[in-house]
Amino acid sequence: SEVQFRPYRTDDFITRLYYETPRLTVLNQTWVLKARVNDSERNPNLSCKRTLSFQLTLKSKVNAPLECSFLLLEGPYDDVQIRPVIYHFVFSNESNETDYLALPIRDSVECNKLLAAKNINLRLFLFQIQK
């Protein structure tokens, strides 16, 4: 699926930038992706090192645990270099979101290219592991 992260700001005393996708349907389930810059450090603007991390959340209720592998890659018409890393997680009603995982972008320059865009366009590959 092609996903589009849109920027949002928290209502905290010190506002924080984060990104979120609209709900998407994959494997007959509803999902949302969230992303944050520099793991929500206090002042990411004071750092010259930029990173993005993401979290995959299952919004649907499931009858049985759903074991999945997934990865994010660059989106269409993008020249940002992302190294493919396959992540694994078992989703259930009690455990429906992954930890924040590093988006394996080559370096800070590539990350800044993503952050400079109005929206971040990536491709999500999500595979269900059958037992």
From TrEMBL:
The keyword Cell division does not apply. Keywords: Metal-binding. InterPro entries: ZFTRAF1. One of its GO terms (cellular component) is nucleus. It comes from the Eukaryota. One of its GO terms (molecular function) is metal ion binding. This is Cysteine and histidine-rich protein 1. The lineage of its organism: Eukaryota, Metazoa, Chordata, Craniata, Vertebrata.
